[in-house]
Inverse folding.
């Protein structure tokens, strides 16, 4: 095989491109099956793959420049800012009907992500080099965005379905925070349970990404497992903080100053 330019990968970038093209046959098969079964998402499927692929390669080009740039620390701040903006906007799309939804989603994502990144830095688990900062920050922000989206969507649905119960509780003099408590709990559980299910099957049904990458790069499996647990500590911890923050901010938005449910619900 050709000499590798990537640690742990037994072929060069040119050879990898050829292999990627060959493996893309799977994408063609999947698209054809979707078309034949008239599922109706084959165009979205191909668009998502093309868009995601373009974004990945754009990021690879950017990282190639960043890793050798003398101002990498400035470029990382720009990248982190982009993650915050895109994450907040993407999650806000799930908050159907909520005015200024980004004022809820962006702070929630920041609360979880900043807490996790701070602990990673202080503990030394994330060395202050771009090779560690970028992928770990991406994991943190990406997970916080997903958790926030799930929380906001479930919370709004629960409130709309339980509107009569909430109004009845308010009529009985129950404080708004107490009237909304169960709905907030349901939203947090719905957002966190998928992560917990993945954690319960860790190492049994699948080998997670960080551990896989480290093993492929030649890292001792024990060290890879330890670092994977660090990743899951940050994913679960940051997710809980993000979800609870989103519920807190949403709870304040669904009521008017007169302690009545907002008209936009």
């Amino acid at each position: 095989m050709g000499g590798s330019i990537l640690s742990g990968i037994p072929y060069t970038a040119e050879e990898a491109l050829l292999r990627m093209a060959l493996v893309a046959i799977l994408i063609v098969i999947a698209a054809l099956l979707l078309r034949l079964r008239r599922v109706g998402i084959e165009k979205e499927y191909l668009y998502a793959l093309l868009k995601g692929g373009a974004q990945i390669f754009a990021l690879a080009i950017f990282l190639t420049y960043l890793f050798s740039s003398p101002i990498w620390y400035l470029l990382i701040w720009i990248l982190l800012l982009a993650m915050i903006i895109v994450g907040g906007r993407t999650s806000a799309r799930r908050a159907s009907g909520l005015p200024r939804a980004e004022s809820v989603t962006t702070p929630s994502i920041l609360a979880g992500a900043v807490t996790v990144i701070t602990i990673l830095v202080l503990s030394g688990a994330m060395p202050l080099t771009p090779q560690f900062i970028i992928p770990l920050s991406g994991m943190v922000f990406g997970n916080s965005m997903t958790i926030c989206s799930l929380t906001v969507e479930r919370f709004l649905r629960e409130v709309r379905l339980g509107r009569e119960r909430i109004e009845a509780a308010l009529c009985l003099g129950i404080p708004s925070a107490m009237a909304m408590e169960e709905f907030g709990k349901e939203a947090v559980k719905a957002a966190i349970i998928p992560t917990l299910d993945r954690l319960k099957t860790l190492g049994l049904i699948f080998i997670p990404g960080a551990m896989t990458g480290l093993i492929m790069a030649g890292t001792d499996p024990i060290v890879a497992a330890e670092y994977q647990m660090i990743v899951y500590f940050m994913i679960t911890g940051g997710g809980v903080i993000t979800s609870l923050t989103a519920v807190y901010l949403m709870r304040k938005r669904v009521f008017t100053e007169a302690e009545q449910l907002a008209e936009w619900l």
Q: What stands out?
A: Residues 1-6 have pLDDT under 50 and may be disordered.
